[in-house]
Design goal:
Layout: H1 2-20, H2 37-44, E1 50-55, H3 60-74, E2 80-85, H4 91-97, E3 104-109, E4 112-116, H5 121-132, E5 137-143, H6 159-167, E6 170-176, E7 187-193, H7 201-212, E8 216-220, H8 233-239, E9 241-243, E10 247-249, H9 252-255, E11 264-266, E12 282-284, E13 290-292, E14 299-305, E15 311-313, E16 329-330, E17 334-342, E18 354-360, H10 376-387, H11 410-441
Parallel strand pairs: 1-2, 5-6, 5-7, 7-8, 8-18
Antiparallel strand pairs: 1-3, 3-4, 9-13, 10-15, 11-12, 14-17, 15-16, 17-18
Length: 442
């Protein structure tokens, strides 16, 4: 009797504790049912409550799928709430919010809200990242001179990167300075992405005026001949940047199976918010080195630097390419630089306003053809986050989905079909007949 009483008491205590505490374990491949470190890091950087409303019918299958997804986030953020609303009972609200799918989510944070139809961690985290940005972030790409298009599909263009920027809440637009000589007032970052023909002096003057007034700039340069700057020499002079002659050659890439000598590899990164905690390789297809002599009011910090074995080749890149001490520039070479300048004075405890500029010696690393190499995409996203002063979002990488598809060749499919439909039944039949024959012999 004492044992039974103690057993019931222990069971009651465990049942009570089970209502107060929970324990979960994810044994799936790649932990696909567990919130990623990127999502949990984003939640830590979002103070204040988050409200999620699911407009779902009484279908328990839909509601359970929503609850399982949101519960992953609620384990990391106690003030994240979820409620269900039957859309059939509130048709006016559904029409006003534009709800179109059963189970669609309405996420609200700090007075901003957005709908989500894609019930996945990637979709919800991207939405939360957009809501975490206070105000609009307009990235204005200069066009009209053969620049890379931010939403173009050609290998030379930046379409895939532009789509990622849009997904993360940035507003992307192009601007022709000849057709409209005034830059948009809402420009947060001006992007110059590899012009192919010379800019007019008036256009360059407008860009210089924008930078002189404190505008943020991302300048993706490309190597070339004497006209590689295409009229942007005044901008380079204003920022105190010059360029090494020739093109960077890095023998390290040959060890990784890259036969093209024009590819440069960056594996070690100087300390900077853009590359903080960065331990991944980035690959630059065609690049040239930078020479930094910033003006007095500017502060310059190296972002990207090639390996010691690299050099800037000033000769022909065909055939066998070797370092020539007489004309080539030995490495390591600066491949990217971040410049900052204080604007005005600090207001109390608020940080002092700061102008930010990033210049790279290559623009191909963000193009559609090479964006997937190494951590090129993450580097490009970090640059933009830093330029718009969203430093807290820099270390949140783009989440990639795990490949859960099994691709079988026709031969493998035939072998599996033959094995299960013919071979296995035949083996079982033969074994049964043998067992029966042996028993009859006894």
């Amino acid at each position: 009797m004492l044992f039974s009483l103690l057993f019931l008491a222990v069971m009651g205590v465990l049942a009570y504790l089970g209502t107060r505490y929970s324990f979960t374990a994810d044994w799936t491949a790649n932990g696909r049912n567990t919130l990623s470190s990127a999502s949990s890091a984003l939640l830590e950087q979002m103070p204040g409550p988050i409200t999620i409303t699911s407009y779902a019918t009484e279908d328990q299958g839909v509601r359970q799928a929503v609850r399982e997804l949101v519960d992953r986030y609620r384990r990391h953020k106690a003030d994240l709430t979820l409620r269900f609303v039957n859309p059939d009972l509130e048709p006016e609200t559904v029409r006003a919010l534009g709800i179109r799918v059963n189970g669609e989510l309405r996420v609200e944070y700090q007075g901003r809200g957005e709908n989500l139809q894609n019930l996945s961690e990637q979709g919800l985290t991207n939405l939360l990242q957009r809501l975490a940005r206070s105000g609009e972030r307009w990235l204005v790409f200069v066009e009209g001179h053969g620049e890379r298009k931010p939403l173009g599909k050609a290998n030379f263009d930046l379409g895939q990167w532009g789509q990622q920027l849009t997904t993360k809440g940035f507003k992307v637009q192009t601007h022709n300075l000849v057709q409209n000589p005034q830059l948009p007032q809402n420009t947060r970052v001006l992007v110059i992405a590899g012009p192919q023909v010379n800019m007019l002096p008036g256009e360059v003057a407008m860009i210089n005026q924008y930078v002189a007034a404190g505008g943020n700039l991302l300048w993706l340069t490309d190597p070339g001949g004497d006209d590689k700057l295409h009229g942007l020499e005044p901008l380079a002079a204003q920022l105190g940047i010059d360029f090494q002659p020739g093109m960077i050659v890095d023998p390290t890439t040959q060890v990784l199976g890259v036969s093209d000598p024009r590819f440069a590899l960056v594996a070690d990164y100087p300390s900077h918010p853009i590359t903080k905690g960065f331990d991944m390789l980035t690959l630059f297809p065609q690049s040239h080195g930078l020479i930094i002599t910033p003006p007095q009011e500017w502060q310059a910090r190296v972002l990207l630097q090639t390996e010691k074995r690299s050099w800037s080749e000033t000769g022909d890149l065909s055939g066998s390419v070797n370092f020539d001490a007489g004309s080539d520039v030995p490495g390591p070479l600066v491949l990217g630089v971040a410049l900052t300048r204080a604007l005005g004075s600090s207001d109390g405890d608020a940080p002092q306003p700061q102008q930010r500029v990033v210049v790279t010696g290559d623009g191909d690393f963000l193009s559609n053809a090479y964006l997937g190499n190494g951590a090129n995409l993450l580097l490009g996203m970090n640059m933009v986050n830093w330029l718009v002063n969203d430093d807290r979002l820099i270390n949140i990488p783009v989440k990639t989905a795990t490949d859960k598809n099994l691709q079988l060749s026709p031969r493998a499919q035939a072998a599996i079909g033959f094995g299960f439909l013919v071979a296995l039944p035949l083996v079982l039949t033969i074994s049964g007949l043998l067992i029966s024959w042996r028993r009859r012999r006894r």
